[in-house]
Design brief:
By secondary structure, this protein is mainly alpha-helical. Helices cover about 60% and strands about 5% of the residues. The termini are far apart.
């Protein structure tokens, strides 16, 4: 099919769709531009240029200019074609959509570098494993607020491959890795296991240190496992106590004892059940789904509750 034929076919499809929608009384060629303009400005604020937005949505660059700025003396568009509005509103950029030079939010990069530090990876060790990032630049990323898209992708790819691996297996001396871990612990840097891949880039997300952060059980797990208590769990425990303010001292202590025991016992039971599923061939994703928890939570539980001697004997 030639280019001219392809253009004619596209126009014919559009005309047929238009006639069909008119027949159904559903033809709305234009819609309010205000929410679309707000959405495009939000995308632009992440560091993406209009040329890239046009490329990824298929909406003409001129239409975007008219939507945002208009042209003197014409003000910004009050209405926009419905198909363009739908394409723009359906789009939100991923890290791979940005040009290398685009400056983007550094939240995800900062959290990944901190998690790598918690695992014992130093900037020097990361530098030795990858190309395209200077050691001094990597050192600054654990506190960055902005970063180039190219560097964010470099860190993301390294994190995806190495965050669960032991740096000592890649030539990092143990004392150096231990010093990195101590540095991270002193600053309460969350490990990779506390982050969900879907939320690590979200500035409003918080690490889930226990698998139950934001609940009273999470508060007890912080205490039991000697994990620095997060603000979400402090708030949850304060609310738990406030709801029982009417109890006398002995009743309150009994309630506290039950909550503590329940947090510990359920964790141990979950670890036992997970190991049983893994022995029968389930992978972490399958075991987590069967037990009704996230993969990250399941991995946390297995680390906190290693296999006991009776379990090994029974296996």
């Amino acid at each position: 099919m030639t280019t001219d034929q392809a253009i004619r076919e596209a126009k014919n499809r559009w005309a047929r769709r238009r006639r069909r929608l008119i027949g159904y009384g559903q033809w709305q060629p234009f819609t309010d531009a205000a929410p679309v303009r707000e959405h495009v400005l939000a995308i632009k604020a992440t560091g993406m240029g209009l040329a890239s937005i046009a490329k990824h949505t298929g909406v003409n660059r001129g239409s975007l200019d008219h939507l945002l700025y208009g042209s003197h003396p014409v003000p910004p568009a009050a209405r926009i074609r419905t198909e363009n509005a739908q394409a723009l509103l359906a789009y939100w950029p991923t890290l791979d959509d940005y040009e290398d030079h685009n400056t983007i939010d550094g939240t995800g990069t900062r959290r990944r570098m901190q998690a790598l530090g918690a695992a014992g990876w130093t900037a020097q060790a990361i530098h030795q494993q990858i190309d395209g990032a200077h050691k001094q630049t990597l050192e600054r990323l654990s506190s960055c607020t902005k970063v180039t898209a190219r560097l964010a992708r470099v860190v993301r790819d390294f994190y995806n491959e190495y965050s669960a691996k032991n740096p000592e297996d890649y030539g990092v001396e143990r004392w150096i890795a231990d010093r990195a871990r101590a540095h991270a612990a002193k600053r309460d840097w969350a490990p990779a296991i506390a982050w969900n891949d879907d939320t690590i880039d979200d500035p409003d997300a918080a690490p889930d240190w226990t698998g139950h952060c934001g609940t009273d059980r999470g508060w007890w797990l912080h205490r039991l496992e000697k994990i620095p208590t997060c603000a979400l769990c402090e708030t949850a425990h304060a609310e738990w106590k406030a709801a029982r303010a009417h109890l006398d001292r002995s009743q309150l202590w009994a309630e506290l004892g039950r909550a503590r025991a329940e947090a510990r016992t359920r964790e141990a039971d979950l670890a036992h059940d997970a190991r049983e599923l893994l022995r029968y061939g389930a992978d972490y994703e399958q075991a987590a789904e069967r037990l009704g928890v996230t993969r990250q939570h399941l991995q946390q539980v297995l680390i906190r509750h290693p296999e006991t001697a009776p379990e090994r004997t029974a296996a």
